[in-house]
Amino acid sequence: MNYFDERIVITGVGLTSPLGDDLVTLRENLLAGRSGVTRFPVRNMGDLPAGVCEFETTRHQSRKQLRVGTRAGSIGIYCAHEAFANAGIEPAEVDRSRIGVYVGITEHGNVETETEVCQLFDHYDEDVKFWSHHHNPRTVANNPAGEITVNLGLTGPHYTVGAACAAGNAGIIQGAQMLRLGECDVALAGGASESIRAYGIFAGFKSQGALAQHEDATKASRPFDKNRNGIVVSEGGCLYVLERLSDAKARGAHILGEIAGYSLNSDGTDYVLPNPERQEECIRLALKKASLAPADIDIVSTHATSTPQGDEQECSALRAVFGASEGTFVNNTKSFIGHAMGAAGTLELAGNLPSFEDGMVHATINVEELDPACGLPGLVCDQARETKGVEVILNNSFGMLGINSVLILKKFHN
């Protein structure tokens, strides 16, 4: 069958974040202006600002399964179960060969390899007979998605989408595309990250001068602030149940939102530094695919990571698209939870998703002195803003090696 023109909708969401393990709790904390950033011990570096998840690991896994699997896999499994429950789908009661799993990741395997190397060096005189025989399945790139399929007995296609910090959006985009290709009937899509367990991520950002520092961990992530000084590394995950509209309506599903458009492109210029012209092009392409004008966007969820150059470049791209319009509100979720890497875009979208129902725009916190280079007319700072209604959300998510992703979600109307 030809599903190319089918509308794709979200019917379920499952998440774990530094601000809560379900959408209601996350939203309450965002509207209340509470930070989820705390301090986390990092090998050889002390206690650093980080976003830590505290979900119930044994809710959907046995202790043996937790020992065999990975933290990213566990995050994915938790989110998958919660997403299906939220969508009213019992995987055991449907055709599990028609459920596809598409999980965005920034990177995978570092945590397990670092841990094994350190254990061998510190305790076993580098004797490889003590190397874990679980290492290979733990470190293959498809691991988080694969662990979900093993746990739930899903037999449809699965893989991860490696797209640096644009991966959360990319996972959702992949799920929508596979539904339109007819490769699955239900897509479980989003992103997952275990980043805080990887020493190399902290060390890498520190060597770049891009690791946030602040005596108060809750104020370390401060996008757009004049004194911002880097990224707060976080873990987390968020997966959505995506369906073709006809299938969702046939089973009487509650629809949380509709995917209106999306785009992916590449800077093609630098390993790390973003290119605002390519970001602008990516935003405009998503708008074109959604048949929308900039004035139609009610909320822009920014990628802004709290790095000096990164925030400034994104704001440049946004000014080029939206001009001086005050009709589009702009916010940032990383100021609350830090940067969840492969899960960033999908968690940030979730933070704004309830706006369709409550009409509120959560703020960007920790903006004590706005950097003039980051000034945007619709930027919401410190206090949540009430609107007359939210119809369209644009979600930015960008990553290293110049990968850009933009996802546009609109309120569902028949």
Low-confidence regions: none
Q: Indicate the structural class.
A: alpha/beta
- Which value, in Å, is the CA radius of gyration? 20 Å
Give the number of domains.
2
CATH architecture of the largest domain: 3-Layer(aba) Sandwich
Topology summary:
Layout: E1 8-16, H1 23-32, E2 37-42, E3 46-51, H2 63-68, H3 71-87, E4 99-105, H4 110-123, H5 135-139, H6 143-152, E5 158-162, H7 167-180, E6 186-193, H8 199-207, E7 233-234, E8 236-244, H9 245-250, E9 257-266, H10 276-289, E10 299-301, H11 308-322, E11 329-331, H12 334-337, H13 344-352, H14 355-358, E12 360-361, E13 385-386, E14 392-399, E15 403-410
Parallel strand pairs: 3-7, 4-5, 4-6, 10-11, 10-14
Antiparallel strand pairs: 1-8, 1-9, 2-3, 6-8, 9-15, 12-13, 14-15
Helix pairs in contact: 3-6, 7-13, 10-11
Structure summary:
The protein is an alpha/beta fold. It has helices spanning 23-32, 63-68, 71-87, 110-123, 135-139, 143-152, 167-180, 199-207, 245-250, 276-289, 308-322, 334-337, 344-352, 355-358, and strands spanning 8-16, 37-42, 46-51, 99-105, 158-162, 186-193, 233-234, 236-244, 257-266, 299-301, 329-331, 360-361, 385-386, 392-399, 403-410.
